[in-house]
């Protein structure tokens, strides 16, 4: 949930910044005229690298400043506020009957009679590193138990006996997953601490289990009476340690062998006879734990037999069940709950948060400075802005007898030259009725560049998911706790492990932002083509940045809400999935073992960025990567489907080309301009739809000789089609021997001009 909230907040900040970048990336009318005079063109309505280096230097540097200040927000903001998980690995394990917590007597050290004297022939190093079956190897000598000193383990058992009945009851499945797991099955303790495994039966007697010599029996009688029922089977300290081995989170549990289940039928049974095994084969204990043979240390000939020998055989321990196949069946567990007030928390990384704050301040300063210096300049942000500008003041490039556009009735007039002038002026051409696809409005270069970015991202996600599956990482749902990662990578070391790891974890977020920007631009191109084409289907208002008259406001999110809201939602979901695919693990407590050697892997600390006793690692999950690839591939198909749809009406496509837009906006000198009634409501920010002209509009036809620039015309509903031209215009236009009267003009007009659809076979400019 924290990742989701951070992604929503960062999306809001970056969306606001992107809108301002779009404004800076949009040309003014002066810049458009200067570019057209050079035979070049600019993009209108979309983010454009082409525009960035053709506009003023001030706009370029302001745009670059906003772009660069977005990078820290992408990289650091997602991790500047993070969750700290708390995991402990030490706990005290008690195996006892139900009578143990009901006040019945018990005698330490339990049925094992396990003391330090048992391994007196081992060196301390050998003993402490090779006794996984009896917990941490911490125990006391026989004198400690016989004198009944107040020792830690004794106090732990006493506490369990006195308070255990009030502890939380766990089922055997819950209990075994928390305490009996090993390798990848245990994950440290968060909600619980010490545990009592409650077994069936009333208890045991030493006379039933042990056949000691007379001297041994006499020594043990005051400690563990031979004929008294003992409710305690075993009590030992245990520990879990989380380490990283070959990118796999491994858990070392010192008590795993003690409580291994031997049943496949859902019954938790413990083979207590294996607590003591003897062998005549000499055994040298390894210096490191042997996971394949955790009980191998028990098959050792170096036991101290003075306390445990059977009559007549001083070298053989006498742990003699009446039934060698006897097993303890665990009914349930009682677990001591932890104080969860410190089990999980949210922390701030001051260095990262400072970087983010500085980035936001840089954006704010850049925006304020840009508004101050460009306040009087009206950028052409939308096609509506461009149409209004070109109608109010005709483009000075070319003359009225020429037309510049992408296509006219299926005829392609696009010419690529070395100067990159994509559109050239053409003379009158004959109209042929036909219909164009949405994809015709987007150049091949735009398709190729966009899908190169999209396909690369999808392939990268699929490759990562496939590698995880090959490595045996199972598909799992997204966990709210990062400690449940399906795979863990070692933190990036560099003195500041947390910040270095944050950089690695969030660099993919940068590419995802580029991926989304390319995708959003492609959808914007498609919507622009539709919006442009609809001007030939009926009278429509212009969508402009500063609406007047019957104009309407630009979309707050640059696209219609039915498209922009799903796109922004998809962006949030994609960034959230990516943040759950590769993320930072920060944990306090003694469960995660910190790597001391900087050259090896493992969890690492960062005293500069993190609190004491805190480790950091990189978590990965396979299912978010799969979902990321699936959603990305589905999104990639949508523009292809949309591009195959037919454009409405008959209007030639212009894409985002400013020169083509200017050519389509050469209005008739005798256009009839309505007058605006001040009582009418100004345009509102609504979705574009078919609108009827207001009844308050009056007719004001331009008189001959009047100004030829209908400044007020863009304030009204417009339609594109064939409009009437003055007689002298027809006399100036020639096409071989074609009658001048047979040539028409296509442009925007008001309801009073009544623009008509082009006629099949007629010549138009």
UniProtKB/TrEMBL annotation:
Residues 2-102 form the DUF6536 domain. InterPro entries: DUF6536 (IPR046623). The chain crosses the membrane at residues 60-77, 352-374, 565-586, 621-642. Residues 1-17 form the signal peptide. The keyword Zinc does not apply. The keyword Signal applies. Keywords: Membrane, Signal, Transmembrane, Transmembrane helix. It comes from the Eukaryota. This is DUF6536 domain-containing protein. It comes from Colletotrichum siamense (Anthracnose fungus). The lineage of its organism: Eukaryota, Fungi, Dikarya, Ascomycota, Pezizomycotina.
């Amino acid at each position: 949930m924290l990742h989701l909230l951070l992604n929503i907040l960062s999306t809001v900040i970056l969306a606001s910044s992107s809108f301002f970048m779009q404004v800076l990336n949009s040309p003014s009318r002066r810049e458009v005229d200067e570019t057209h005079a050079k035979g070049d063109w600019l993009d209108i309505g979309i983010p454009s690298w082409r525009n960035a280096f053709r506009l003023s230097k001030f706009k370029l540097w302001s745009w670059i400043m906003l772009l660069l200040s977005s990078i820290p927000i992408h990289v650091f903001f997602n991790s500047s506020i993070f969750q700290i998980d708390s995991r402990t690995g030490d706990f005290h394990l008690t195996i006892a009957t139900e009578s143990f917590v009901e006040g019945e007597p018990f005698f330490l050290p339990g049925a094992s009679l396990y003391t330090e004297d048992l391994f007196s022939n081992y060196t301390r190093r050998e003993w402490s590193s090779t006794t996984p079956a009896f917990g941490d190897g911490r125990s006391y000598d026989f004198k400690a138990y016989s004198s009944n000193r107040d020792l830690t383990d004794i106090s732990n058992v006493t506490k369990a006996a006195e308070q255990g009945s009030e502890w939380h009851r766990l089922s055997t499945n819950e209990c075994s997953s928390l305490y009996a797991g090993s390798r990848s099955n245990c994950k440290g303790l968060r909600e619980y601490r010490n545990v009592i495994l409650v077994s069936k039966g009333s208890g045991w007697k030493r006379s039933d289990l042990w056949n000691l010599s007379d001297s041994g029996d006499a020594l043990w009688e005051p400690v563990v009476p031979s004929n008294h029922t003992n409710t305690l089977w075993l009590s030992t300290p245990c520990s879990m340690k989380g380490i990283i081995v070959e990118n796999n989170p491994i858990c070392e549990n010192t008590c795993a062998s003690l409580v291994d289940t031997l049943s496949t039928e859902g019954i938790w049974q413990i083979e207590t006879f294996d607590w003591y095994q003897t062998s005549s084969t000499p055994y040298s204990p390894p210096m490191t734990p042997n996971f394949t043979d955790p009980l191998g240390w028990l098959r050792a000939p170096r036991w101290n037999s003075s306390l445990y020998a059977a009559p007549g055989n001083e070298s053989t321990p006498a742990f003699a069940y009446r039934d060698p196949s006897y097993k303890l069946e665990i009914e349930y567990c009682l677990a001591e709950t932890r104080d969860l007030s410190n089990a999980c928390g949210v922390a701030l990384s001051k260095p990262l948060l400072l970087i983010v704050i500085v980035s936001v301040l840089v954006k704010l300063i850049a925006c304020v400075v840009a508004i101050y210096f460009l306040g009087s300049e009206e950028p052409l942000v939308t096609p509506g802005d461009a149409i209004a500008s070109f109608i109010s003041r005709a483009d000075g490039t070319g003359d009225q007898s020429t037309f510049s556009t992408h296509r006219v009735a299926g005829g392609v007039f696009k010419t690529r030259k070395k100067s990159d002038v994509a559109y050239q002026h053409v003379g009158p051409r004959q109209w042929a009725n036909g219909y164009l696809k949405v994809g015709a409005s987007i150049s091949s270069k735009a398709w190729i560049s966009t899908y190169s970015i999209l396909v690369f991202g999808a392939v990268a996600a699929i490759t990562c998911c496939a590698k995880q599956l090959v490595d045996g990482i199972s598909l799992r749902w997204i966990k709210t706790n990062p400690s449940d990662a399906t795979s863990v990578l070692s933190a990036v070391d560099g003195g500041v492990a947390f910040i270095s790891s944050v950089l690695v974890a969030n660099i993919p977020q940068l590419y995802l932002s580029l991926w989304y920007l390319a995708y959003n631009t492609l959808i914007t191109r498609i919507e622009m083509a539709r919006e442009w084409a609809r001007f030939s289907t009926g009278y429509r208002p212009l969508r402009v940045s500063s609406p007047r008259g019957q104009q309407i406001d630009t979309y707050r999110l640059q696209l219609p809400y039915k498209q922009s809201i799903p796109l922004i939602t998809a962006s949030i979901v994609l960034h959230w999935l990516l943040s759950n695919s590769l993320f930072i693990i920060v944990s306090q407590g003694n469960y995660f073992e910190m790597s001391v050697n900087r050259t090896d892997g493992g969890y690492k600390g960062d005293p500069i960025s993190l609190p004491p006793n805190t480790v950091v690692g990189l978590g990965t999950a396979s299912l978010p990567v799969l979902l990321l690839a699936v959603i990305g591939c589905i999104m990639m198909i949508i523009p292809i489907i949309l591009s195959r749809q037919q454009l409405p009406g008959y209007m030639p496509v212009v894409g985002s080309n400013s020169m083509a837009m200017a050519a389509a906006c050469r209005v008739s000198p005798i256009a009839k301009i309505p007058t605006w009634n001040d009582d009418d409501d100004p345009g509102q920010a609504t979705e574009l739809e078919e609108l009827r002209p207001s009844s308050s509009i009056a007719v004001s036809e331009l008189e001959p000789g009047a100004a030829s620039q209908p400044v007020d015309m863009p304030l009204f509903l417009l339609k594109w089609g064939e409009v009437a031209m003055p007689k002298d215009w027809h006399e100036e236009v020639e096409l071989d021997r074609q009658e001048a009267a047979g040539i028409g003009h296509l442009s925007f007009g008001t309801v009073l001009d009544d623009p008509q659809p082009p006629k099949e076979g007629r010549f138009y400019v």
